[in-house]
Amino acid sequence: MTDRKHLADVRARIDAVDQQVLELVNERGRLAQEVARIKREHGEQGDFYRPEREQEVLRRIESLNTGPLSDEVVTRLFREVMSACLALQEPLKVGFLGPEGTFTQAAALKQFGHGVQLQPLTTIDAIFREVEAGDMHYGVVPVENSTEGVVNHTLDCFLTSPLQVVGEVELRIQQNLASRETELQAIRRVYSHQQGLAQCRGWLDSRLPGVERVPVDSTGEAARLAAMEEGAAAVASDAAIDMYGLGALAEGIEDISGNTTRFLVIGRQSPPPTGDDKTSLVVSRSDRPGGLVSLLEPLARHDINMTRLDARPSRQGVWEYAFFIDLLGHADDAQVSAALAEMREQASLLRVLGSYPRAAR
């Protein structure tokens, strides 16, 4: 068989596989519609997005994957398939910290795929309000960065909001310097979110010393401003740079490689256990010696791993603090439930903010 004939045969087989893939994807869509019909007949309205079920599917797909496509690529493909099928059941409206082109939008797409209706909102408070009011099904908010720590604004919103955490997303962050200008020497002002500026402090100090740094609400907003202003630049994402027609003066300017931001998905009800979950809670107690140690002791005694502890003013008195805790496990797990019951006996406040599947890597 000649190489040309062999190539033609392989392409014919690819065409046949493409047809099979198309037929199977549409069959999956029809099955998703059947699921929606059954749920509606049983009065299950507004319960089509099931993060625990999606996590179960993705883990199963990864376990079955034999390559040559990587687990990451396969997961991304199936996330989009599930997103498209979910849109056939009920189009989801998801709020994120806008404008378009922010890392929060990228996190929302990683979690939900392109089959949802994404709505940019101007502040983290606005995301909470829109989800609380029912105008958005879910919201995506940043909560911590591996370089710069927690996003205090998000934690403060949880102190007064009834919303629950229903999922988490981890996103590798690459910061770029972009501008209408073509030379670094022309830059007189740099815009970005305060976290973006902090993540690139060393690079900016060495390459743009003395240049004004202006914090704004988001990296997307920074790119928009840089596109309008002579002598301005933005520390922003690839998506924001493309969206506002900027040129990249430098790529990957974050000071620490592997820089990652964690985002939380907020909604009205946390999902049931998946076997690989996290729980977030906020606790406080009267100020006395050893108070925090005794409050946390049940976690150690029940062999529960605490992965994060942050303190914020409780807004209930001067020098009174609330502690935000992340731990491994679901609030319905026996060990976690027992530990939380013991903590409640000592706490002046203990509220579970949500139990949810751990972020897919």
Radius of gyration: 23 Å
State the CATH architecture of the largest domain: 3-Layer(aba) Sandwich
Number of domains: 4
Order of helices and strands: HHHEHEHEEHEEEHHEHEHEEEHEEHE
Q: What would the CATH topology of the largest domain be?
A: D-Maltodextrin-Binding Protein, domain 2
The helix content, as a percent range, equals: 40-55%
Estimate the mean pLDDT confidence: 89
As a percent range, the share of strand residues is 25-35%
Shape: globular
The major beta sheet can be summarized as: 6 strands, mixed
Contiguous low-pLDDT stretches (5 residues minimum) are none
Give the termini distance in whole angstroms.
44 Å
Under CATH, the homologous superfamily of the largest domain reads Periplasmic binding protein-like II
What's the number of helices? 12
CATH class value of the largest domain: Alpha Beta
How many β strands by DSSP? 15
| Secondary-structure-derived class | alpha/beta
Please provide a written account of the structure:
This protein has 361 residues and is of the alpha/beta class. The chain folds into 4 domains: 3-89, Chorismate Mutase Domain, subunit A (Up-down Bundle), CATH 1.20.59; 93-173 and 260-266, 3-Layer(aba) Sandwich (D-Maltodextrin-Binding Protein, domain 2); 176-250, Periplasmic binding protein-like II (D-Maltodextrin-Binding Protein, domain 2, 3-Layer(aba) Sandwich), CATH 3.40.190; 270-357, 2-Layer Sandwich (Alpha-Beta Plaits), CATH 3.30.70.260. The chain is 43% helix and 26% strand. It has 12 helices and 15 strands. Strands 1, 2, 3, 4, 5 and 11 form a 6-stranded mixed β-sheet that branches. It has a 5-stranded mixed β-sheet with strand order 8-7-9-6-10. The protein has a 4-stranded antiparallel β-sheet with strand order 13-14-12-15, with helices on both faces. α4 links the parallel β1 (93-97) and β2. The two termini are 44 Å apart. The model has no long low-confidence stretch (mean pLDDT 89).
